[in-house]
Amino acid sequence: MSANDALKSNIDRLLTHLKDGSLAALLVSVHQNPGGVDRAESIKVVLRERLKHVRKKLGAET
Amino acid sequence: MAPRLRTLSVKGFRAYGSAEQTLNLPSDIAVIWGPNSKGKTSLAEAFEFLLTGCIARRQLMASTQDEFADALRNAHLAAGEEVYVSASIVAADGTPHKIRRVLTRDYAKRQDCSSRLEIDGAVATEADLARLGIKLSQPPLQAPVLAQHTLGYIFSVRPQDRSTYFKTLLEVTDLDDLRNDIAAAADVLAPPDDPLLTKFDTCTAVPALSPSLSSLLTTVPDPAKLATTIEGAALSLIENTGETAPEALGQRLVAIETILADRRGKTFPVCGFKRKALADWSPPAADTWSRLETYLTERKKIDENTRRLASLFDEALKLPAVSGITESVECPLCGTASALTSARVHLIRKYVEHTTGFKTAEAAARSALLQLSAMVEALAINAESAQPDYLRTTVSKRRETGFTVARIRELLGSRAAELVSPWLVQVKPLARAWVALCHGALAARMQVENQIDTMANAFDSEKLRSTLSELAGLHAKYAAALDAYREPAAALGTALNEVLDVKSDTTGWQDFLDIARHPNKLRGALIERTARATVANELDAALKQIDRAKEQVLDDKFSDYSTLIEAWWERLRPDELTFFSAVQPRKGAKRTIDFKAGLSIRPDRSAPKVRDVIAVFSQSQLHCLGLAMFLARAQYEGLGFIVLDDPVLSSDEDYRVHFNSTVLTELLKLPMQVVVLTQDHDTWEELEIRYRHLSISNAQLFVENPAEGSIIENTSDALLAKISRAKSLARGGHPDSRKECGIHLRDAGERFCKEMLVTDRRRKGDTAASLTDYDEKMLEWLCPRVEPLLDRDASHPGRLTVFRNIVNRACHDNAPPGSAEMIHACGEIRFFVKEYFGR
């Protein structure tokens, strides 16, 4: 097993121990595939979206 | 594809002298035989130095770093001679490369060594090695080289220190980085820094407000419900004082304000600081001055008498008897009968017409003056209201109400020094500026009113304009003094209010008033805080899940690695009843790693007792476990090649056969290139035979001249290998060595003769001729049949006979020939091989 394979499989292994659709799984997936932006920023985008959703649910005016 | 070594060259490194020595590695398995002190460990460390630039033994074995001073450079090498190790490799992508590491500075007493790495002639770094597919592990066991001192490393460190080794080995540090990256993103969820929320939090601690407001800590209601909550809180606060609360919220807030001021005032008249904002004061509009100028202009056009009489005439014309005159009437002024005629009335009308413009201008000017007066009055009133109340009362009145600096200092306690002085410094300038403004306003107003009264006679608009300009200047100075006063006064006021609220049990009331007056902003702030707290909790929970999952990944990988170790263990020591069981993190102490052994009394190993290997394994078993761990790691990391320096203890015959057969076969299947260094000649020979079908590379290490250092002889040629072996024994002082030398020379001689005969038969057309045709044939049978073939010189047959005689004496006599004869015999057979086979 190569080091890259080990690295890849670490994330894959981690995901198998996280519930599908959970925030934890989403954050790990986004970190692994940031889609062209900085990894840290990609995590923040997820959290900001989550904030928007919660604000709306609490009745914030858009 | 994994990288492969093809050659390794050494010059001046440890046991190797100034002549470069090269080890050929054309195949996936190589075995090098080196008796004790012939350069075997130096060769293993050459591999290590090439890849890492250092040797692990210094870190693992030396009690002090001093002991390795000058360890790498050959002790007999001339000064200035270069020391290097180089290798030809085939990289992971199949391309050939040359790697070279030059020693630039040897180890010193307190200093590491330094070296220069080159790849294909260019200076390179370890990262460049990785690009060729050569992977290094974490220190201290970076290189894929197994040596005696590395075997026991992991057992010799504390269980807690093993965890870092395994975590790095099992590569979950990337998951730590992932977790840290995710945790770091929490800064977007930091609670908002909103002063309104701080006030709200203070209010929730007020006993009278808490029952109503506490619900807002967990749930943010809709605007209507929030308004109801605030109304209820206000009601509760008022009723708690014993007062009756008004119906509307606005009125309730005013009531709270009043009660608050009253309560604070009982401790200190803090309302003395109250003041209103100073309004801007604009200078009179240009129209005002133009009206005055117009008046002055019109006044100049008419003489004084006419101006005086204009009003009189105007009033006379209003009299009905005069306005509708048709015949002479009595003069209304002097009473002379029939004095006022129609003609005289007509004349009077003419006078009045002439003064209309003047009168209009006069009215406008009067209006302008009245406006000026009103402006000045407004300025004075506003300036006064902008003063703090305490400055508008007398000293005695202030003292009477308790508004004194001493009292303020007493209330503020330790904070007085930082707050009172800055405030006091601004009070006097403020008072002076106000007094000056008041006097200026009074003077201006008197002047304006005087102008109104004396419009008919004297009118000086320039003087008036100048006075008002001065007044504007005084207003600006007053505004500046207020600006300078504002901040220290606000700080002092805030601090005082805090103290007063505590003393009067009104803490949080002002904050409640502030939030009650901005319910929408409060709602927005509460929503923001609640949202961030909610998502922060979700992130927390996610991180905990990731932590648990990480531990599970590590457990999985431990299990995988443990399984690999177990597999190699079983290949080395199958069916033993004391066996390796697992390597695992200790339960409840994840940082502690244990090696477990199983002890069973049953052949099927069932129901084993589990113990720590350190406690129950023998030295041989620990050695074996170290080897199994090394092999498991090499497999786990997908290494392309490994170097094993005496992997089997000479005392461990029991598992040598498993190593030679099962273990090496499995390693080659991975596939992995294996270089085995051994001091055991039997192992060397066995491997050469066992892996001949894989074209195993053979080499020997020997020393002819200590000054020249170790020599590597690549001996894939079996005949030459035998001669080399014999040669190394020829110098042996003990008769047994020379006897053994004789045995090898006999083998070499027999091999030479067989090859001569086969070559001759094949030259004559017998293509089926083979060495095996002469199995079991001894030197005595072979030599006479070969002598006729030694036709290159007449002396050759005789020399072969002499060789045979020496060999026979060595093998059979109690006292074998001396070293000189043995060396001569080695030389003779070597000569024949070179002469007749060109090798």
Number of strands of chain A: 0
Q: What percent strand of chain A?
A: under 5%
C-alpha termini separation of chain B: 35 Å
| Percent helix range of chain B | 55-70%
Largest sheet of chain B: 6 strands, antiparallel
Overall geometry of chain B: elongated
Counting DSSP H or I runs of 4 or more residues, the number of helices of chain A is: 3
Broad structural category of chain A: mainly alpha
Overall description:
Chain A has helices at 3-16, 23-32, 39-58. With 62 residues, chain A is mainly α. Chain B is an alpha/beta fold and 839 residues long. Chain B has a 6-stranded antiparallel β-sheet with strand order 2-1-4-5-6-7. A 6-stranded mixed β-sheet of chain B has the order 8-12-13-3-14-15, sandwiched between helices. In chain B, strand 14 and strand 15 form a beta hairpin. In chain B, helix 28 packs antiparallel against helix 32. The chains are: A mainly alpha (62), B alpha/beta (839). The interface between A and B is large, with 33 and 41 residues.
Task: Give the tags.
heterodimer, A: 62 residues, mainly alpha, 71% helix, 0% strand, B: 839 residues, alpha/beta, six-stranded antiparallel β-sheet, six-stranded mixed β-sheet, 32 helices, 58% helix, 11% strand
Task: Give me a quick take on this structure.
By secondary structure, chain A is mostly helical. Chain A has helices at residues 3-16, 23-32, 39-58.
Outline the secondary-structure elements.
The complex is a heterodimer of chains A (62) and B (839).
Chain A (H helix, E strand, L loop, with lengths): L2 H14 L6 H10 L6 H20 L4
Helix pairs in contact in A: 2-3
Chain B lengths: L3 E8 L9 E4 L4 E5 L6 H13 L3 H6 L22 E7 L5 E10 L8 E6 L2 E3 L1 H6 L13 E2 L1 H4 L1 H4 L2 H11 L3 H12 L10 H10 L5 H4 L1 H4 L4 H17 L9 H19 L18 H16 L2 H15 L1 H4 L18 H13 L1 H31 L8 H7 L3 H8 L3 H38 L7 H43 L5 H8 L2 H54 L5 E9 L2 E11 L9 E4 H4 L2 H19 L3 E5 L7 H17 L3 E6 L2 H10 L6 E7 L6 E5 L3 H13 L4 H29 L15 H8 L9 H17 L6 H19 L2
Parallel strand pairs in B: 3-13, 3-14, 8-12, 12-13
Antiparallel strand pairs in B: 1-2, 1-4, 4-5, 5-6, 6-7, 9-10, 10-11, 14-15
